[in-house]
Amino acid sequence: MDINGLIALWNHANSKVIDIRRATISPGESIRSYYVPSGLFLMSITGNAAASLGQKYYRMQRFTVLHAGKGTMLDIVAGSEGLDYYSVYYKASFQPLVSSELADYSYSITPDNPVSLHRILSEMFKEWEKRHPLVQLRVRTLLYQFVYELLNQLMRQGAGPAKRDLAAQVAAIIHEHYGDAITLETLSESLNYSVPHISSYFKLRTGLSPIDYLIKVRIDKAAALLRETDATLKEISFGVGYQDPNYLSRLFKKHKGVSPMHYREILVKEEKTEDNPSMTIKSSIVPSEPVDYTNINDNDYQQQGDGEGDLIMFKHSGNAWAPTVLLSVILLLSACGANGAETTGSQSSPGDTSATSKQLQSKIVKTVDGEVEIPLQPKRIVAGEYLGSLIALGITPIGTSDHHIQNPYFQQYLKDVENIGNGNGNMEKILALEPDLIIMDDFYPELNEKMSKIAPTVVVPYASLKTVHEEITYFGELLGREEQAKAWLADYDSRIASAKDSVLKVIPADSTFSVIEFKEKSIMAVGADFGKGGQPIYNGFGFKPPADIAAEMVDPGWASISAEALPKYAGDYIILTSDSETLDELKADPIWGTLPAVKNGHVFLWTSDRSGYWDPIAILNQTEELAAWLTNL
């Protein structure tokens, strides 16, 4: 597909929406020999079908997008689940010098982030039904947004993964639509997963419920509006999705430690400090010690907080000039370019070899945010994420996130590593470390944009590197440590194989295993990709879950279950994560106590602070820990 051609075409298009429909085809029904009267975008929502556009055949599943040009013959035969879909008919005209051949090009796409596309189409359909005079203008704008998002995802697919993790999709919806009335039910409709699955999966992956994450994002947005505008609390409240300003005020104080108005008063005082030349002259470029934003710590997991809204507000106990310095450095860095590539302060002349020398010391890498110039041998790396791979490659960063600091498998490696804060860290602490490379995931896009003003920032999408081999190899290539990556993986494979051999000598290969988390009366069985011991049990040792649940453990990879369903999910051996239960308590429970694995003492019980990590270092240690338990039963 000529993506660049499609982009050029739409850049010169004058489009008009003709009709928008939401339709359903029942199982076995079909649409035959339908000649499309105009340009058509069709996006499936639920169900499945076989479709043909002209002589090309496509399989339609959840969130497949089809495009058909005017006059194309369309056939759709619904599958066993039927098909529910949106269709958008449009007419586009182009400038005379622009070739319009691609306008009639038929294609099918499975976007990596279908949620944003679905929400645009849903809004278009709702607007279309209003029949208001402004409808045409509104839906035309939304059509361009849809096309932009579609083409943008097609370009990103060329350099990134084909499918985003469900938790990342939920986070993306929240960041994009935090001002809307987001509920678990609307998330369920957008993602085509049940409410229990979305809620359980998001918490399994992030430690937060979707609603708690939404609240955090809204509070950070409110803080930014207090900092950057003169909006009233009522206006801010409506803007971030709350109808009651008093409710926002209570939430804000809980999360930030001060009321919204007090927060703004602090900013006014700091602005006066910024205008004081004598105070500025006494300042150094970077604060000698990081300054905490607040003494309130409401974080209960690794992925909380993007630093947005916390940039300028401090509870002062000392240096009142830190905000002034921070603002000055940010403005300087912004003037120098996003990646800090031209911060030398001098321009090279034709005979100057400094530019050539610099080229030899850096390289261009492709990321989801475009090309980034990074040092060939970075010396001061801040790792908001992916610390396990850096440790495996023999790299000790200068700073990492709080959840990595607490990782029990990293303790011997983090003696001199600075804690950059909750979530993926906060901006001031990272700035103070003067990094030459920053590594993040894409869970906090606003923070990443700020990070790129400090140092080259490589964003690796959350959960996009699916295996230990894939992750170690990627970072080995990124950081110029290919040989170290190969050596570490060879040792990893050897140790995993040794652990497997020792286990299979005492545990029959056809034994069934269940990996379960029991937390706050909720029970979840997980497969091979979600921590809790799943990687060692299913990937490392090769054991299988009970036959009745094998399909669920592959797709979607987890199941939220009731206590009454435990016998179905319980294998001969159970790897159980629980922060409150003991084996004796399980034996005394009227349901757990009936399970053969519990009766026989074939339960490995550990807490979430050990089982909840799935970085390469943790997986290797967990594999050997589980092997030691199994071989000593």
Automatic annotation (TrEMBL):
Q: Any idea where this protein resides?
A: Cell envelope
Q: Please verify whether the record's keywords include Lyase.
A: no
Domain (HTH araC/xylS-type): residue spans on this chain: 168-266
Q: Where is the Fe/B12 periplasmic-binding domain?
A: 378-633
Q: Looking at the keywords, is Signal present?
A: yes
Q: May I ask which residue range the UniProt record assigns to the signal sequence?
A: none
Q: Which InterPro entries match?
A: ABC_transptr_periplasmic_BD, Bact_iron-sidero_bind, Homeodomain-like_sf, HTH_AraC, HTH_AraC-typ_CS
Which of UniProt's keywords are assigned here?
Answer: DNA-binding, Signal, Transcription, Transcription regulation, Transport
Pfam families (alphabetical)? HTH_18, Peripla_BP_2
User: Mind listing the GO molecular function terms for this protein?
Assistant: DNA-binding transcription factor activity; sequence-specific DNA binding
Q: Which PROSITE patterns is this protein grouped with?
A: FE_B12_PBP, HTH_ARAC_FAMILY_1, HTH_ARAC_FAMILY_2
Q: Which GO terms describe its biological process?
A: iron coordination entity transport
Listed SMART domains: HTH_ARAC
List the GO cellular component terms.
outer membrane-bounded periplasmic space
Q: Quote the PANTHER family the UniProt record gives.
A: IRON III DICITRATE-BINDING PERIPLASMIC PROTEIN (PTHR30532), IRON(3+)-HYDROXAMATE-BINDING PROTEIN FHUD (PTHR30532:SF26)
Q: Which family does it belong to?
A: Belongs to the bacterial solute-binding protein 8 family.
What protein does this entry describe? AraC family transcriptional regulator
Q: Which organism is it from?
A: Paenibacillus roseus
